[in-house]
Amino acid sequence: MKAKDATSFTLAHQLMTFTHKRMKISYKHFLALLCGACYLFSPALFANTLHFKGIEDLSEQEIGYVVFKQLCQEMGLKVDIELLPANRAERAVSAGLAAGEIMRIYSYGENNDQVVRVPTPYYALKTTAFALANNDEARDLLYKLEQANVGIVRG
User: Between 96 and 47, where is the model more confident?
Assistant: First the structure.
């Protein structure tokens, strides 16, 4: 590893360690740190536009697309996000054709050693069912579901 690469790696590692310790910083500042760390690893990749991938046909990715793009725009960063099937998005990142992915489940980082997990989420999703207030049967069903321990979807 060249001296410049080693310095870049050390600085990027320090940025990630800083954020990993759950310091209270804004999402804008965190994203700026992340983009700075990515730039240190590959300046040529980020000369004009940051290229990210996302997963197509998932509503949460569509929302992440909007939020991520807006955060970058507010910081004056040019971002290009392309939504692809999950496997194609992963292959593009692994091949170095993109800076990363806009959102993945936690285990993606455990199974893919070529990426660095951003420890601070910029978007979270929690869903629940609703029933009409005047529909007793639906309310009863949802009450029964509330009492059950069905499971938790993670990621």
Answer: 96
